[in-house]
């Protein structure tokens, strides 16, 4: 068996194919076959109407998207087979936006396949950097393609495409409404705004939930307070305390550097916002000897003896101070709101 050889014709035939034949030869381009729209103007007009109809449907779907945003309540639930019970707003927004984008894409594809030039043009590979001759050729090809696309000649196609493309971005603009209701002046005020000299609001110790007196505040100590009437059991407590929380410190008069800040306090007792002016983290670290308060999130440091000005870190503003005094019963009270907005900066705050 080892001496048996294959017929010569088998090997020679394969060798001949490898030598004289090129299995990777360029077969060239097939003969161009014109489309029906190339030779029948009625078919071309029909295709033009079909493409324009898709663009018009896209425009109507975009208008439907905006209308759905206004018509449907966010809590409205509907039954859609086979999806089940879903949000009417989400369903309508997804459906209309999907139709708007699909019709633009389908119209563009239909336009390219039926009305734009479809002549195949081979192009050899060339260096990335083109010479002047190639640039001129590309510009000329672009002009030729623009002319052959019929963009300038077929006005109905051009106008409906422009209309659908112009309306679709409105969907994104309308979605900005989901960022929430306009804040109006809510960022400017806190729960302490209800305090007036005639009707002050007591400072309540957040640990004991009892009103605070000056003799309760030890020099060098840090205490946290909230406004009278704000209870943890109430709905919206966390949202409100995020603006109303106070740091109460008592600093010896000789250590106070800012006399204006001292005038807003009572016998060395100062009330500052607990909310860091960087990104709104709660401040809870206090160093007695230096009177520095440290935000644990990004290490912004405030000097409470000097109007809570920033001495280190990314915070851009001092901590707002609340004016306090005592009422006829000797309890610490606030007589007004913060002079500056609490928390991080926003677009209306320099």
TrEMBL record:
Alphabetically ordered keywords of this record: 2Fe-2S, Cell membrane, Disulfide bond, Electron transport, Iron, Iron-sulfur, Membrane, Metal-binding, Oxidoreductase, Respiratory chain, Transmembrane, Transmembrane helix, Transport
Location of the region described as Disordered in the Swiss-Prot/TrEMBL record: 1-34
Regions of compositional bias (Basic and acidic residues) in chain numbering: 1-19
Pfam families according to UniProt: QcrA_N, Rieske
Membrane topology term: Multi-pass membrane protein
Calcium found in the keyword field: no
Location (main, coarse): membrane
Similarity comment: Belongs to the Rieske iron-sulfur protein family.
Function: Iron-sulfur subunit of the cytochrome bc1 complex, an essential component of the respiratory electron transport chain required for ATP synthesis. The bc1 complex catalyzes the oxidation of menaquinol and the reduction of cytochrome c in the respiratory chain. The bc1 complex operates through a Q-cycle mechanism that couples electron transfer to generation of the proton gradient that drives ATP synthesis.
Protein name: Cytochrome bc1 complex Rieske iron-sulfur subunit
Organism whose genome encodes this protein: Kitasatospora paranensis
